[in-house]
Write a structure and sequence with these properties.
Elements (H helix, E strand, L loop, with lengths): L10 H18 L4 E8 L2 E9 L7
Antiparallel strand pairs: 1-2
Length: 58
């Protein structure tokens, strides 16, 4: 029997769960590059994704 995950207890935990989900989504489609988080007052306010394309030499 699968037990559903516990609901977030407050807004801070809900924000953290949403932030982690966004980071996972950014990483899922990234092969080469960077994911940068901007934090203000302990909260994620921005996620920047820079993708790099790798080309094979001729």
């Amino acid at each position: 029997m699968n037990t559903p995950p516990a609901a977030p207890r407050n807004d801070a935990e809900r924000h953290l769960d949403e932030s982690i989900a966004s980071v996972r989504e950014a990483l899922a489609g990234l092969r080469y590059g960077n994911v940068s988080l901007t934090i203000h007052e302990g909260r994620v306010v921005q996620i920047d994704v820079t993708e790099k394309k790798r080309f094979k030499p001729n």
